[in-house]
Design brief:
alpha/beta, Beta-Lactamase, five-stranded antiparallel sheet, five-stranded mixed sheet, 18 helices, 17 strands, elongated
């Protein structure tokens, strides 16, 4: 008899197709034909998955329950019952004891069939071996948790190191600056200059390390704002000129064409790039002149660039090693001569910052004229006002002549300093007393709270007792966060400034959330400290001027 396409499939054909399907599928199939009895039907593949031959053990709900891992049995059996009672669908991961006694992970799925009355009459499902997948997921999760813990340990270590390094550096840099400003003895000034230069080098290297760590962790925020490129360059020259002079070098700046009055960039990071790159050139040059050339380049109607070129007359820069850094390759051996003096950290950070500002960086070497480091930044579509070219030396001289050794507070304000470090107490007390402040020192947050509490008990107005509080954050007994919160609860409304060596991501926000009005980091910038106080303190009432 011929096989006509119109011929109805016979029962034995359907059976053959079904058996062929069961033979080649990777899943085991089970069928609970009568829910009133525990016996079920398991396919040969079902038996194979749990390590048995067909019919080697009873195929029943009781057998399935005995094979379940004790930790998985209650939830799995409850899920089966819930499917029978109301959900119609069962799907769950569980462990079964395979032949030999070991447990393996499986995934079970099933669907419930019901009669016209809505009663469950049959349940058919499948079994899949997911053991290797579960183990891989567990391994990946373990790796993720390990990486997370390592990151937490790293962040805690960096936070601790930042505090421990910055706290003594605040005193070292602060007192060396005082000696440079006040001493007339040449030997003393030379010694103070050496202390300050090395302290600043340590701070810069540590800051570079922290910034690189933040970039690697994706926690580096870069705010783009309107800024004046000429101001940034002047600030860089005022800092670099002295460093170059100490090595017997000269440093000058050349503008290839007029600069825009304003660009869209980040002035702090642009300054950091220039200081790192020019500093590297100075450190690796023994004689001659280092020149910074700036050129405004139009690369399109709406896209603008500033191009900076640092010309180094010497041959001390390792072109191959540095271009590896600029190409984004991982630093080789930071202890090798090619990266001596923190060169690898400073240049790697400069490269990252240039990329974040939308530009690129490279180093070229010419046997006759030394080497050139060239980088660019995107400047956005800011103002096209071109200022008149002014001599940098003239601008610098005006800047220096207008700067006094110590800033002055705009009123003789009463300041409480909450600081546990004796050397930072001495430094801040000296600076602010010279600036015209009247200082009260306490050693921790609890002493600050106690002093204000005593004043309230004596019915004194605490807002008239102190115009401002300078609050260290990491202190014994009661830290700066808790002390600030308690002082605010007491009704103190005058400014509180956090002075802290905590500079990790989120530290500023924590201080402001606790009730501080501003956040300044150690080592202290004395000029910024006095400027911040002047911005925050209230003016002297007119009726009080006559009595002072």
């Amino acid at each position: 008899m011929s096989n006509s396409p119109d011929r109805e499939p016979e029962a034995h054909d359907i059976q053959q197709h079904f058996e062929l399907f069961l033979k080649h599928t990777n899943e085991g199939v089970w069928d609970w034909l009568d829910l009133d009895i525990p016996e079920q039907w398991w396919s040969p593949r079902f038996y194979e998955l749990i390590g048995y031959r067909d019919q080697e053990i009873d195929s029943s709900l009781d057998t399935f329950q005995r094979l379940l891992h004790p930790d998985d049995a209650p939830q799995t059996m409850q899920a089966l019952q819930t499917a029978l009672d109301k959900t119609d669908h069962f799907e769950r991961n569980f462990r079964l004891r395979v032949k030999g006694g070991a447990y393996r992970w499986f995934r079970g799925q099933a669907h419930v069939l019901r009669n016209q009355a809505g009663q469950a009459v049959r349940m058919t499902g499948s079994l899949s071996d997911i053991h290797e997948r579960i183990l891989l997921e567990a391994e990946l999760e373990g790796t993720r948790l390990q990486a997370f813990r390592a990151r937490e340990v790293k962040q805690s270590f960096l936070a601790m190191m930042s505090h421990e390094v910055r706290t003594p550096l605040s005193a070292i840099l602060g007192f060396s600056e005082i000696l440079l400003d006040t001493s007339q003895n040449a030997e003393t000034r030379d010694a103070a200059n050496t202390i300050h230069s090395n302290g600043q080098y340590l701070l810069d290297t540590f800051n570079d390390f922290l910034d690189l760590s933040r970039i690697e962790d994706g926690q580096f925020d870069l705010e783009i704002q309107d800024c004046c490129p000429l101001t940034v360059i002047e600030n860089v020259q005022s800092l670099i000129a002295r460093k170059a002079e100490q090595k017997g070098l000269t440093f000058d700046v050349h503008l290839a064409n007029p600069l825009p009055d304003s660009i869209k960039s980040n002035p702090i990071r642009l300054k950091q790039i220039l200081l790192n790159l020019i500093g590297a050139a100075i450190n690796n040059t023994s004689e001659g002149n280092i020149r910074l050339t700036i050129e405004k380049s139009l690369t399109g109607e709406s896209s603008r660039q500033l191009i900076f070129t640092i010309q180094n007359p010497g041959t001390g820069l390792n072109t191959e090693a540095i271009n590896q850094i600029f190409a984004g390759r991982q630093l080789a051996d930071l202890t090798s001569p090619a990266y001596a003096g923190g060169l690898g950290l400073s240049l790697s950070l400069a490269r990252h910052l240039v990329r974040l500002l939308g530009g690129d960086i490279a180093l070229s070497h010419e046997s006759d004229s030394g080497s050139n480091i060239t980088f660019s930044i995107i400047t956005g579509t800011s103002s096209e006002i071109i200022p008149q070219q002014i001599s940098f030396s003239q601008r610098l001289n005006e800047h220096k002549s207008s700067r006094s050794s110590f800033g002055v507070l705009r009123k003789r304000c009463r300041i409480m300093l909450v600081e546990d470090g004796i050397y930072n107490q001495m430094l801040i007390h000296y600076l602010l007393t010279k600036a015209g402040g009247m200082m009260t020192l306490v050693e921790n947050g609890q002493q600050a709270v106690d002093q204000l509490t005593s004043a309230q008990q004596a019915e004194d107005e605490i807002n008239e007792l102190f115009d401002l509080i300078l609050m260290d954050i990491q202190m014994p007994v009661l830290d700066g966060y808790a002390a600030t919160e308690r002082i605010r609860e007491m009704g103190f409304t005058n400014p509180i400034i956090a002075l802290t060596a905590n500079v990790m991501p989120g530290d500023r926000e924590k201080c402001l959330q606790a009730g501080c009005d501003e956040y300044l980091t150690k080592p202290l910038d004395r000029k910024k400290l006095i400027q911040t106080i002047n911005l925050l303190i209230k003016p002297i009432p007119k009726h009080m001027l006559q009595t002072r």
